[in-house]
Design a protein that fits this description.
Blueprint: H1 3-14, H2 40-49, H3 51-64, H4 68-76, E1 81-86, H5 91-102, H6 106-115, E2 118-123, H7 126-135, H8 138-157, H9 164-202, H10 208-237, H11 242-255, H12 257-280, H13 282-287, H14 293-324
Length: 325
């Protein structure tokens, strides 16, 4: 073996990213392509074949959205100050009454026992506010990273050769003009929907209005979650305006309702499983999102929804083209 080949072999051995470019086992002889029969059974067959690459894709997805680590640092409270304060606003006037001579009243002392419970509070430091400011960069990275990850996942489903580095950044570079503005819009809508669900859940049951709005927010979340995956698929597949993609995504949500519901249930299962493991054994529940959960959600959405796009938009185009020739 020449010295050059030895050097190349050593570089590959010590390069942790080298395996990301290795070819997978491929499709066995005589095995049908997944897109010919995108069934429940083939979903797991393809998942098994692409499992290592999904872990690699998850690394790109997490590192690409690096501002999320700034948010996690704030939540962890490394730079904040912890204290305690009365949990009820009634404690302040009670404390004032006691200070001016009511300390011998049994009734007041009883009320203090009821309303004097303290709760933990966190005071953010200047460093926390800086980190929160830096986390706003997520609005810029979110769309491009989703575009690149969707492009890779589409390659998995179409069973095309995938070169992680090249394809990921190729998709971002090609669609950057639409990926950033839609990413900002997408993230904004997601945050608004989450806020609505939390707000109406806190007021659930107070009156029929808030109860209906809570279920309305859940329905809106389900519909938008189905729509947004179609938008990223169309972004990397066609040359369309964002308004046109939004319109088409709404149509696909209705026409592909069976596969969309399957995608919704599958994604919900993955999220709930992660939450269950987080409660059962926190170390596993915490590490799973950094290993496979985001890429798994993207894979599920692309597997379920790309056949709908192919059937409605791609196949008729090639059919008309062949007829015209």
């Amino acid at each position: 073996m020449s010295q050059k080949n030895k050097d190349d072999k050593e570089k590959r051995f010590f390069n942790p990213f080298f395996r990301l470019e290795l070819d997978g086992p491929g499709v066995e002889k005589g095995e049908d392509a997944v897109l010919d029969k995108p069934t429940f059974k083939n979903f797991f067959k393809l998942l098994w074949r692409k499992l290592n690459q999904l872990v690699s894709l998850n690394i790109f997805t997490i590192l690409g959205n690096f501002p999320i680590f700034f948010i996690l640092l704030v939540i962890a409270g490394f730079f904040s100050t912890s204290s305690s304060a009365p949990s009820s606003p009634v404690f302040a006037p009670l404390s004032g009454v006691i200070s001016i001579g009511g300390q011998h009243s049994a009734a007041l002392n009883g009320l203090v026992g009821i309303y004097g419970a303290h709760t933990a509070i966190t005071v953010l430091s200047s460093t926390d506010y800086i980190l929160l400011g830096l986390s706003a960069l997520l609005a810029i990275t979110f769309g491009p990273v989703m575009t690149g990850s969707t492009y890779i996942a589409r390659g998995f489903v179409r069973e095309e050769p995938v070169f992680m580095f090249h394809d990921f950044f190729y998709a971002i570079k090609r669609n950057i003009k639409q990926a950033i503005p839609f990413g900002i819009l997408d993230l904004g809508i997601i945050l608004i929907i989450i806020y609505d669900i939390v707000f109406f859940n806190m007021n659930y049951g107070e009156n029929i209005g808030t109860t209906m709005l809570f279920f309305g927010a859940l329905c809106l979340a389900a519909m938008y979650f189905m729509m947004r995956s179609y938008i990223y698929l169309m972004m990397i597949t066609f040359d369309l305006k964002i308004t046109k993609m939004l319109k088409n995504a709404l149509i696909f949500t209705v026409l592909g309702v069976k596969r969309n519901i399957a995608m919704l249930l599958g994604s919900l299962f993955v999220v709930l499983l992660n939450i269950f493991l987080l409660l059962l054994y926190p170390p596993v529940g915490i590490i799973l999102p950094f290993v496979i959960v985001p890429s798994m959600l993207i894979y599920i959405s692309v597997y379920c929804e790309y056949p709908v796009v192919k059937k409605i938009m791609i196949d008729p185009y090639y059919k008309d083209k062949q007829e015209s020739e």
